[in-house]
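Our consortium's second objective concerns turning raw sequence data into structural hypotheses that experimental partners can test. To show how far this objective has progressed, the report includes one record in full. It was chosen at random from the queue rather than selected for favorable results. The single chain below, 72 residues long, was entered without modification.
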Amino acid sequence: MQKLSVKNFPENIRKQIKKKNITQKQLANDVGMTEVIVSWWVNGKAHPTMKAAVKLSEYFGCGVDDFLKGDK
């Protein structure tokens, strides 16, 4: 079973951004956030609200828990 933690969020969102081949700016525009907020998420300076996490999971086509999964 994988460990779930908000500490894993920055790495996992970076992976999703890379996998979708988009920029942080494009992600911000597509999900209705500012570039600064997305940058904070990617750099671990902030974590999304549950509402934002749900938007991100819908955008990337994954579950909210996929952003929280870490190493086994």
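The partners drew two points from this record. The chain has a mean pLDDT of 90. The radius of gyration is 11 Å. Both points have been shared with the crystallography group to help prioritize constructs.
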